[in-house]
Structure formats: structure tokens, C-alpha cells
Specification:
Blueprint lengths: L23 H4 L7 H31 L1 H11 L11 H10 L29
Length: 127
Amino acid sequence: MSENGKQPTNPDRTPSGQFLPGNSVAKLGGRPKSSRHKLAEQFFIDLQEIWAASGKGVLRSVLDEKPSELMRAVAGLMPKELTVEMVDPETALRALDDEPATHVLPEPENGSHGDTGGAMGIPEGQP
């Protein structure tokens, strides 16, 4: 702030801080990539390489040694809001009943419609 308590005025900007038309900095497309941006960019490149090499193993060891830290990290990645649509169960079942069947079971090889080997559908005599 200046001595009189007011914000100093910048001849290249409006009172709200926007660049005035014809400003030379604005013509350059904003500020150039700074060293901070380059550092962050390189950090994420390095992080991706490390993650590709051993990310799953690190997750396993964190899960074994500090599961609460892993849960904190997972919770931090979750969206702040989650939209859940409540559907009437009757309506949902009717919608399922209206859908055409997309999977047809093959006819038994011997032509009979008898026992197909239980829940697994394995014909008798086969492992």
C-alpha cells in the first residue's frame, strides 16, 4: 500500500486488475513458464516413472504397515460430493424384465433337457 493507505495504481491495468487493451505483457500470452512450473512438471514425470515401476508394491507395504494412512490417502482422492439416485425397487425390476435376454444357453448335446450337471453346468463324467 502507498503512504496514503490506497492501493498503488498500475497504468497497465484496470482498477480491478485486468490488463488494459494493447498491454505488452498480455500480448505475450500471460506469464512465461516459470521455474516453479517446470519443477512441478518434472516432479510429476518422475512420480509417474516411479509409480509405474513400484506403485503396487508400495501400496501393499503401506496396507500392511500403516493401513490408516492408506485409508486417509484414498479418502482424500474421493469426490467431496456424491450424487446417488434413489430408484423404486419395483420400477427397477420392471425395467430389468423389459430388457431382452442377451445370453442364450446352448442346447444339451444329447438333446435331452434333463440334468445338466448341477449349478456348474458340467456334464456328468467330466471333471
